[in-house]
Amino acid sequence: MIRKCREADFEAIYEIINDAAEAYRGIIPADRWHEPYMSRKQLKQEIDTGVQFWGFEEDSTFVAVMGIQDKGDVTLIRHAYVLSRMRNRGIGSRLLRFLESTTEKPILIGTWADATWAVAFYQKYAYRLVSTEEKNQLLRKYWHISERQVETSVVLAGKKWNSPTTH
User: Fold this and answer.
1) In which domain, by residue range, is 56 found?
2) Per-residue pLDDT tens for 6-55?
3) If we measure between CA atoms, which residue out of 164, 142, 17 comes closest to residue 77?
């Protein structure tokens, strides 16, 4: 079952993100890896800036989360994580499709450039990589991340994304 996360789900969100993010260890640049990958303070900041988390429950327990953030003219998919023991069961796909159905706006997704499995996942659902120049502009406009993270990330755009000149 997919449902919107509540304040009481904070620890579950935190645990899922940090369990699933282990896949990035040794893949993303070492200077971008943190222990834990996302602190409770960082998670609270993400929620405070408008990231709304949705979770996938199995047997009354969250096993995956995915965030969505309204940025005015676009919607961002943020922090998509499935517990490592629950991967490859279609859970991420179901969450993505559900969140896509909640917006009419163009969807943008940022991820680490070297997380090839994440890029391939989104490409399977018709998201396309934008050019490096457009990626840099989009990350600086819609995300609040370091320049180092801009350098080491990619942006994928959904079907409704036209071009930088229209946004």
Assistant:
1) 2-166
2) 999 999 999 999 999 999 999 999 999 999 999 999 999 999 999 999 99
3) 142
Q: How many CA atoms lie within 13 A of 44 on its CB side?
A: 5
Helix-then-strand count for the chain, H and E? 6, 7
At residue 12, φ and ψ (nearest 5 deg) are -65, -45
Ramachandran region, residue 149 (left: φ > 0; alpha: ψ -120 to 50; beta: rest): alpha
Question: Which domain CATH number covers 51?
Answer: 3.40.630.30
Number of domains in the chain: 1
Amino acid at 58: E
pTM of this prediction? 0.94
pLDDT in tens, 78-99: 999 999 999 999 999 999 999 9
Residues contacting 39, CB < 8 A, separation 6+: none
